[in-house]
Amino acid sequence: MIIVMRPDAGEQAVQKVVEKLKKNGYQIHESRGVEKILIGAVGEKSDNVNMAIEALDGVEKVIPILAPYKLAGREFHREDTVIRVGELTIGGPQLQVMAGPCAVESREQLLEIAFMVKESGAKILRGGAYKPRTSPYAFQGMEEKGLEYLAEAREKTGLSIVTEVMDTRKVELVAQYADILQIGARNMQNFPLLKEVAKAKKPVLLKRGMAATIDEWLMAAEYIMLSGNHQVILCERGIRSFDDTYSRNVLDLSAVPILKQLTHLPVIVDPSHGTGKWPLVEPMARAAVAAGVDGLIIEVHTRPGEAICDGPQSIKPERLSNIIVEIGKIAAVMGRTL
Amino acid sequence: MIIVMRPDAGEQAVQKVVEKLKKNGYQIHESRGVEKILIGAVGEKSDNVNMAIEALDGVEKVIPILAPYKLAGREFHREDTVIRVGELTIGGPQLQVMAGPCAVESREQLLEIAFMVKESGAKILRGGAYKPRTSPYAFQGMEEKGLEYLAEAREKTGLSIVTEVMDTRKVELVAQYADILQIGARNMQNFPLLKEVAKAKKPVLLKRGMAATIDEWLMAAEYIMLSGNHQVILCERGIRSFDDTYSRNVLDLSAVPILKQLTHLPVIVDPSHGTGKWPLVEPMARAAVAAGVDGLIIEVHTRPGEAICDGPQSIKPERLSNIIVEIGKIAAVMGRTL
Amino acid sequence: MIIVMRPDAGEQAVQKVVEKLKKNGYQIHESRGVEKILIGAVGEKSDNVNMAIEALDGVEKVIPILAPYKLAGREFHREDTVIRVGELTIGGPQLQVMAGPCAVESREQLLEIAFMVKESGAKILRGGAYKPRTSPYAFQGMEEKGLEYLAEAREKTGLSIVTEVMDTRKVELVAQYADILQIGARNMQNFPLLKEVAKAKKPVLLKRGMAATIDEWLMAAEYIMLSGNHQVILCERGIRSFDDTYSRNVLDLSAVPILKQLTHLPVIVDPSHGTGKWPLVEPMARAAVAAGVDGLIIEVHTRPGEAICDGPQSIKPERLSNIIVEIGKIAAVMGRTL
Amino acid sequence: MIIVMRPDAGEQAVQKVVEKLKKNGYQIHESRGVEKILIGAVGEKSDNVNMAIEALDGVEKVIPILAPYKLAGREFHREDTVIRVGELTIGGPQLQVMAGPCAVESREQLLEIAFMVKESGAKILRGGAYKPRTSPYAFQGMEEKGLEYLAEAREKTGLSIVTEVMDTRKVELVAQYADILQIGARNMQNFPLLKEVAKAKKPVLLKRGMAATIDEWLMAAEYIMLSGNHQVILCERGIRSFDDTYSRNVLDLSAVPILKQLTHLPVIVDPSHGTGKWPLVEPMARAAVAAGVDGLIIEVHTRPGEAICDGPQSIKPERLSNIIVEIGKIAAVMGRTL
User: Fold this and answer.
1) Is residue A115 scored above 80 in pLDDT?
2) Predicted complex: ipTM over 0.90
3) What angle do CA C16, C22, C26 make, to 5 degrees?
4) In a 3-state reduction of DSSP, which class is residue A42?
5) Does position A62 have pLDDT exceeding 60, yes or no?
């Protein structure tokens, strides 16, 4: 880390900083200029020390140098992580499409959509049994019943299942049904949940928080990994911006190549939540594949006008088939299969 | 709600929307112009219907009209809610200052700070036993031991206690020790936690999420209220912006008069997290009082340079005394006491 | 437009609004519910009336319905605008790549880069003679000398020229040299400049402001069009977000399909400014093409380490050739040529 | 500045950076750790060198250390700048209130409001003769006629005049009438205008851009100062955020104490544009004074419902009198006069 001292910091203040750093095992290199004194400190990063230094007298700012994530970072783990879900792989040459309704609404609804998802060529079924809804008056999900229907859909179609878990107390239950556990955007920094979900030993799909920086997102992955589960899939789903007139969020596709540099974990994109409007799903799905993504998660509903949630961003299953054809062509250009 | 139809929507599309609305108990008023058709729908608001309508063919957008929060809103509850914490009130004429360290670090640290907080004139002690830290390598809190020290500090000083709870499984435990349960910014939309905390029947301090709109924040309060606990204190703590060079967040003080219009719940401000820099705490505390706030929550540490967390934004106890004197003068201008 | 009255607005307030609307030529449709009164007003949109209504007693909010742009909008001009620059077209089946240095630094630098741009297959040369620099101490551009070098580069290579104009007093001069006049992000709402540039009767490349909404951007285009110049090219160049650690801006690619719905004007993307980092230029260029863009503008420098500006986001010319090959493959999938 | 090298940067890359820095007159201090090499470079700051270094091979990032503004910064100019406008001072112990209509609409309107502003105790009249409107269909201002009315109002009331200039070609004209030249938010980085306005030798009120960082804003002031005019007043007017439901912008009051640390220039606040809603003007005016501001600029209209622009955020003159009484009390607490 680098410590910049205020122009008016006295020698005593500088010495106090140096001492504290040395006590914490850092090697020190000072650079004294006309206006500023810089203290370079090389050693093991510790967040606690970092903030404590910033609070010392005379310190203008502390600039961290090392990436705060170790397990998620590519520096010590250069090859891509490939996650296995049954016979599928996520993060390998094959792109994976996850598709399904926002919420499991009924046995019939789910099975009907599941079969159409299967037919489209997608291999993973999404569907929420526990729904994080902004309003307490909105449908909160079918809960365990929904999980049972998902399991039935898997049995009948052979699709794998990804579904969200929101409560530490439900992780064990959801893990009994799901092939991939989803952490939603609102829970990206629900740290007890991250620790709990790690115990389930199933792949975790970690959505980016609505205003989470790339570093915060990778640190959330680090929580799961440090708790013993290295099977983390990162999912970009749009960030909050100043303009939501025509799209609910701004889908940050530059996060894809950035993450590919920083981390070995697979990266997928959710163009449905990322835009909130079904006409934008196809172009953004194509763009995500061209940006180098490992997969997509897409909301599908046979009757969007009757969907209990996220109707406006749900596409019809026939359109899903079309999207899969389209992105297949771009995947081919990228040297990927579908 | 108002439904705006696309210019090219046919008569059939209009009729389908009208039918669906009528089936859901809405009264309909159409306005047909040269370019657009508007459908005004008056009835009981339902989020589910709202989104389903938006997904129908020919619908350009759906504009909700009624505030989505009922219990938190001022429309049906005009007088201010005053929350009692022992002999204190929050939301009445007296402003309340909550102060203390970011984290409980040891028995000695907490007691030392608690006595100085007491002396400054503040009446509520803050201190984290469970800490939501961005890094899994950072100090995660003393947990139950920390709660015990908080209880001891209360006994010795007479201060009331506010402390954060992060996990549904810990709500009962934390509620045994705390006078006020804090929901942190990262958990504002942790809906299972909101429901669980409501059961504790203790006042809840609900911090605004880093990128939460005013409506989302009030809907989070609505979750707690609908679950049976109407004692919710709203706490503005800074929102994320494009510039964090000189302050960690942007403290949104206009939220104070806005909330005073929209809701009857008390509103407090956290100038420590709201800025992230101790020299900004005093001016922003003054400004918050001038904006009409019901209280403040401030981070204090006897040795910020050794604080395990949030040192840079922690003020020393002697400065707290000074701040309390300063805001007392502004409170007087506002017709409030301290 | 729709006027929502406050719950406590009396009959008199409603009548005053209705009268004012009628006086301005609107037809009125009222919807009276238990809690709210809605007034639907159908007529010719006027921004002035709109804001005046919102200031009347008892009015809660005014919701505009009609798109505020007429000339830029697709509603009254359904077919795509195709702009001619010499023998090139922008907005037709062929994608156009504009490439060149951030700034014209010298005759040699520009000619060297221009020939390499030519060789890569791009057909338009970019290069700044007047530079909008954040710092007054930074290089401000070679001014007219730079324009002369650009003209020479055109003559020698056959490339067309796009260059920025920042000052109303320079529009005539720059228009004598340039084939396309660029309005930079910082000047998107420099209205006198928009009006002046319209008079030049040359195509205008209008960059999106750093925090401009889609509507504001289209209204800026409307300024140029209303002043008599319909040859406007929209250029997405990244918007400001809360995270600039790994990219300078967030490139908003969903703006591309959104604009394709709303407007008939051509849309291009600037992956260099949009990310600020050269390793992100290629993946984002590919993604932009997959999102449906009509062209790209890319910063190129033979020696980025010696570039006077924007070195970190400039790619080397050999990489440009590679990018053009890569996006050519994606263009083919999209049914476009290069 | 500090240069962080990539972990895989070879010795040759390091040497190339060091050489380049030395050639530019920097002194070099290296810190070599296990994972990273840091190069501390102390010398005269140059933005050009800075960016060129970042583009060299092996460089991970360049961290600037010195504030980029010299003339605006407090480091070399510790005492507050006090600007004289006739007999008034801005930046001294007395707070100044500037008030008036958004736009000059007619002679009668302006004179009527001017007299009421005078009566309220404010000493400076605002009013736009050239209006930057989002829509080209909206009223663009009375232009020179408006300036004449402003001059007449000054003559009749003794108030000083602040009015906006948008075009380099009009600076001389506007400066003939105005006592203070206003640069609007949309033109904060209109660099030719900043240079031109500096020549007028009149105080400049520089509004913060909608998404401008503090540093960018101070650099805009630096443009004016470097061009020879040191009389710059900074005006916070709200920044763009993700939530504009209840306020048009977020008024960033923490900018006030931040600027007071960084610069010697006076700082004022515009609670009218900062919120966009008249009921928020008074509480935010109070808060601004409590935050330590040197003045306020407030939109006033005798008949907001008929105002050509900004009706919803305009207060009536009688309310202005009340606000001035209220902020006077807070000013007294702050040791300021009004």
Assistant:
1) yes
2) yes
3) 130
4) strand
5) yes
Whether residue D65 lies within 8 A of chain A, CB to CB, comes out as yes
In the 8-state DSSP scheme, what is residue B103? B
Rounded to whole angstroms, the Cα distance separating C98 from C84 reads 14
Pick the residue of A215, A243, A275 with the most C CBs within 10 A to test the interface with C by mutation. Answer: A243
pLDDT at residue C232 above 80?
yes
C64 and chain A: CB distance < 8 Å anywhere? no
Report whether D93 contacts D277 (CB < 8 A).
no
Nearest to D247 among B258, B279, B291 (CB): B258
B242 chain-C contacts, CB cut-off 8 A: 211, 240-242, 244
Closest C-alpha among D2, D1, D10, D5 to residue D59: D5
List of chain A residues whose C-beta atoms are within 8 Å of the C-beta of residue C326: 333
Q: Does B34 touch chain A (CB under 8 A)?
A: no
Cβ atoms within 10 Å, residue C215: 18
Check residue C24 and give its pLDDT: 82
The residues facing D25 across adjacent strands are: none
> Among D24, D4, D23, which Cα is nearest to D14's?
D4
The model's pTM: 0.94
Interchain proximity B42–C65, CB inside 8 Å? no
Interface of A with B in 145-204 (CB under 8 A): 166-170, 186-187, 189-192
D208: exposed, middle or buried (Cβ count in 10 Å: 0-12, 13-18, 19+): buried
Q: Collect all residues of chain A within an 8 Å Cβ-Cβ radius of residue B216.
A: 134
- Please name the member of A213, A257, A292 whose beta carbon is closest to the beta carbon of C242: A213
D63–chain B Cβ distance below 8 A for any pair: no
Residue A30 with chain D: CB contacts under 8 Å: 29
Q: Which residues of chain D have pLDDT under 70?
A: 33-35, 44-51
- Burial B215-229, CB ≥16 within 10 A → b, else e: bbbbbbbbbbbbeeb
- Specify whether the CB–CB gap between D52 and C307 falls below 8 A: yes
Partner-chain residue, chosen from D239, D279, D333, that has the shortest CB–CB distance to B241: D239
Can you tell me the distance from the alpha carbon of A73 to that of A212, in angstroms, rounded to the nearest whole number? 17
Mean pLDDT, range B125-132, rounded to an integer: 97
Q: What is the pLDDT of residue A60?
A: 84
Q: How far is CA B241 from CA C232, D241, D318, in A?
A: 32, 7, 35
| 3-class DSSP state of B332 | helix
Tokens read off for B230:
């109407």
Which is the CATH superfamily of the domain at A2-63? Phospho-2-dehydro-3-deoxyheptonate aldolase; domain 1 (3.30.70.1140)
Contact D227 C136 (CB under 8 A): yes
Domains B2-63 and B83-333 share a fold: no
* Domain at D83-333: CATH code: 3.20.20.70
Shortest CA gap B27–chain C (Å): 8
**Is-contact C320 C313, C-beta < 8 A?**
no
Give which of C109, C98, C99, C181 is closest to C145, Cα–Cα.
Answer: C109
Residues of chain D found within 8 Å of residue B214, distances taken between Cβ atoms: 243, 245-246
> Is the Cβ pair D137, C46 closer than 8 Å?
yes
Residue A128 pairs with which residues in a beta bridge?
A: A103
Q: How far is CA B172 from CA B133, B177, B279, B333, D195, in A?
A: 22, 9, 37, 41, 64
D244 touches chain B (CB under 8 A): no
Residue type, B94: Q
Q: What's the confidence (pLDDT) of residue B183?
A: 98
**Cα of A219 to nearest chain B Cα, Å:** 6
E-strand ranges in C23-173 read: 27-32, 37-42, 59-63, 83-85, 88-90, 96-100, 124-126, 160-164
Task: Name the closest residue on chain D to residue C223, using Cα atoms.
Answer: D136
Domain residue spans of chain D: 2-63, 83-333
